[in-house]
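Our consortium's second objective concerns turning raw sequence data into structural hypotheses that experimental partners can test. To show how far this objective has progressed, the report includes one record in full. It was chosen at random from the queue rather than selected for favorable results. The single chain below, 103 residues long, was entered without modification.
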Amino acid sequence: MILVNTNYIAGKELEMLGMVKGSVVWSKNIGKDILSGLKTVVGGEIKGYTEMMNEARAISTKRMADEAETMGADAIVNIRYATSSIMNGTSEVICYGTAVKFK
């Protein structure tokens, strides 16, 4: 499965199959949340949240690709991500794009 954030794949003629998406609501455990809160006092990267978002993006991307595979897609173009905070220490990540088949 080819995944790109452009609306084309060089050298390929594409047949659009439709929009696909994957989403996840992800949180860290209370211990990491407390430690992350303390980090805001001194500033700097909150690595626990960086890891959380990387994991959530990977899961949402996999779910999107799985949906495209069920449609018989060869690739997904124009991939985008959106995030939102559901509650403290919890985020939703949605990944979406257009499933395509090579002609």
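The partners drew two points from this record. Residues 47-70 form the longest helix (24 residues). The helical segments are 30-42, 47-70. Both points have been shared with the crystallography group to help prioritize constructs.
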